[in-house]
What does this fold into?
Amino acid sequence: MAGPSYRLPEGGWIDRSRPLAFTFNGRRLQGCAGDTLASALLAAGIAVVGRSFKLHRPRGVLAASAEEPNALVTVDRGDGPVPLARATLTPLSEGLRAESRRVFPALGFDLARIIDYTRALWPAGFYNKTFKWPSWHAYEWALRRMAGLGRLVPAPDPTRYRHVNVHCDVLVVGAGPAGLTAALAAARAGEDVLVAEQAAEPGGSLEYDPEPVEGQPPREWLAQALVELARHPNVRLVCGATVAGCYDHGVLTIHGTGDAGESWWKVRAGRVVLATGAIEQPLLFGNNDLPGIMLAGAVHRYAARYGVACGRRVIGVVNNDLGWRALLALSRAGVEVVAVIDPRPMPDRALSAAAAERGIALHVGATPLTAHGSRRVRSFDFITADGGRERVECDAIAMSGGFSPTLNLYAQAGGRLRHDPRLASFVPADCRRPVEVVGAAAGITGGAGPIAPAPVASTSQWVDYLYDVTVADVELAVREGFDSIEHLKRYTTVGMGPDQGKTSNRNALALVAALTGRDPGAVGTTTCRPPYQPVTLGAIAGDRRGDFYAPARRLPGHDWHARQGAEFEDFAGWKRPAWYGRDRDAGIAHEVGRVRQAAGLFDASPLGKIEVKGPAAAEFLDFIYLTAVSGLKPGRARYAVMLNENGVVIDDGVCARLTDDHFLVGTSAANAGRVAHWLEEWRQCEWSRRELIVAPVTEQWAVITVAGPRARAIVQALPGMIDLDAGGLAPMSQRAGRLDDGTRYRLQTISFSGEASFELSLPADRAPAVIERLAEIGAPAGLGPIGVEALLVLRLEKGHPIVGIDTDGTTNALDLGFGRIVAGRKTDFVGARSLARPADRSADRRQLVGIEFDPSAAVVAGAHFVTAGAGPRRSEGFVTSAGISPTLGKGIGLGLLEGGHRRRGELVSVFDQGRRATVRVVDRCFYDPGGARIRG
Amino acid sequence: MLRIPCPWCGVRDEVEYRFGGESHLERPAPDAADAHWADYLFNRDNPSGVHHERWCHSYGCGQWFNLARDTVTHQIIAVYRMGEPKPAAGEDG
Amino acid sequence: MAEHASPGVEIARADGRTLVSLRVVAAAAKAARERLGLSEPGRVGQSDPCSIWLGPGHWLLFGGGIGPEELIGRCVESLGGLVHLAVDESAAWAVWQVSGAGARDALARGTGLDLRPARFAAGASARTRLAGIAAVVAALGEDRFQVLIERSHAAYFGAWMADGMR
It folds into this structure.
């Protein structure tokens, strides 16, 4: 595969004294510091770097920068393989391992190449047409195996990914001469400047173009520019950084790569300067995809920048003056250029004279035909100006089909393009956002020439290298009516590869224009969308993975719970003890029994707590709640429900009145943030003229609930606790006080479990000490911790629904049985009007009921109530909670059942994944319906 | 991602805000007809052009405010407080 | 090379100070600010009590060596007649000091706030989204910041900051 070195004896910006060893497909090779992977492969004489996606044709390096469609390799620098890396943008490093994509079984002899010889079967739209009989699935396994551009690695990704947020006055995209000039001007004006360069080093065309800049040799100018930029404290130049997307309001994203890992930048820029250059385009001729056929500018760049000759006998096939310039520069750099073939009858006179002087054979007015070779180009056929067919031997072809300004970001920013016939390319027209285009990206002169397929088989002329789209495919698509550029793209897949058509869109467009007799400007371009280049998903995720994926809240008493053997689970963003001990079911049953027989300690800190104060507070809460609270006396509390404007229940909790104009709104743990926001929204948007204050205090107060027949005695034993028997501290009371150690507390007698219950609110920083104290005091009485799962069982035994579990987004207040409260309301409240609609009052709605069943029956939450009888059955609702009550020894549950409120006593079938059971519809409260135990 | 000017905190990323839908909705009286109430609940303008909408700077100062935004270009035409009338420049939408 | 390292960053928990959240109704905001010397929008104040503006009519007050009851008492005394609510939030926040030459970059990993020195100089404060959670960031000096987050997020936030310094 590799021959002797193609490194030129001198030249290039590489450090020949620092050799770097690397491997390609397991083969040991050597390059130098300053090489890219592509230049090192070319220097080692590696012609074939991969196989094409569809036809498995051998492919070599085409370009020298981001537009490369062939040299997409998997690169491993020792920190895991990165697929789809462009060899042309990959700096060479010691020990780097690269592997080509799609090598089956080996790069030199690709079995799947057989596809190439049967390519008549694989025309445009092949997957829509060919694999229909007997079924797509008969072919799918084989195609899936062969498709794809890289391989996923199942091991954890060791790469470091980071997010970076940046603000600047101006973002300059590209650090070539135009970009650096713009950056210098902005820096001198005192602006904050960020310059992003996709290559590993700044310079762009300054690296190889011999043309002087501002009268200076390009490399000297570059060195001076970099020194000056470094002196400005407000300038940041970042290399290996590809601007991936341009969004609204000056937001851009950058994908950064480098030794320290990858990064994902969000930039907020006051304005944007695009110095993104122009991309040279391939020419259409037979076998124009053979290894050794490269873009002329790239061939020159490899010689001038990396000291690499892409061939020992190079010919030029060009249609424009810039192509000639590249060939002349190449020749001066010491690469043997033997001939130039140009379809134009009269190229620039000075250029052709200079070429002739260097001994290059000139064939102007010639018609390119086809290249020959198998794993590397060997010769090229063309028709001379006087009509004779000629063949020239070569081992590399430097082609230039003109230039296409890189305007992806401009188009993403909403900039419109117009076609300039003199430049034969699209150029910026106008953009309403502050985006300026400079340098070659604004249009490049001298790069235009005729674009037409060669008079040879159109199946042998490639338009899209990456996705194997030929001139024939484009012709077929146009013949079948897909001549809109967006249709053509989707039908042929031209430009849909990871390179997004950087070297194919222009030729596809020119072909469609010619085939349909339209002007290229009338054909237009496809829509440019982010990202400009493929971006690693890990970079976008950044550090937001593992423990940082979703920020978890911890209870103030977290460490204490951990010491008690808590099994923590996520509940609405909180890490909460689900149960204690190793055995889940035994633990839950034990904890339920503890509350029913002695006392349990439950950490209810995530419960939402919102203080509402002001002269309008009572009236406001009457409006917010279904349950009026203005009748509460200070020191008393009430269970209350909130609806949305559709009458749907959104939360429930306990509202306590602290003083006349001061209330404490309790919410469920899951809705703490949402309800605080809900109250604020009503306060600001509808009650803004009223004197009202809403203050969420959830984080300040830990909440420890002690429940069970012995709870009263345990809580009373806390030194400093108020007398729980005095003053008729009945259920649903609210008190405040101070413990002996100075800890302030709020106490509410609220029961969710059905037992006497004391909910103690403590400043979060004091909670751990008080929990310890309670545990110590209560231990002799059998006090122990209980988790969320046990509480769910306890509340189910009491028949308390949980909003969002036992209700859904259609469950209104009447469905939960609050009809009497609704009827009793005299003033307006949120959702009131909706409950008056006929559909909301229907007796056939899904209504919440209790169910009982035999413990052996398969009844689970999510099982459907189904109509009785044979034949197809209809769902009449579903079970929302179900379990075996350890206290009652029977199956109990809640469910939303059509017309449920009038079906008490009825036997109903339930169905779940093929299993059937029968349940009885009953009252919701299964345990102590009279509530005697709550009073303790 | 939009960059939204909060009247109190200045320009911040969209992620700091909560979108509240169309602004200037009038909540009907409790005795409104079903059709009128349904209109308040469900029917919203969806203009191609200037849209008057509510946003809340929920990660910032917590304040609700109004925005006149062009739904085609995302250009923000006006920012004004709750309770203030639509600005004249936005009336043509 | 993309710039990654955040050298020269120190983080430290600085809990323990008395914090009181004061809210007043819109009509009383101006009077409250004058009577208590509270900070302007987007600022952290230097007077006693030291305060951070959290929103219109909403401040977080720092007790200079006094307890929450005393500080709330001062508010009630000064604001007599104005509709207001002062609540103890000493346990509601985890307070961090983030300092060093790399402090701005360390914070910018997780927030879109414009932290450029010219835009967020000493005395500036902002409520924002930092590392995906609600935070209050105040610039106490050129490269010295105070970051307040909800207490329940303290373990997460500490781990996130440490991860960034790795």
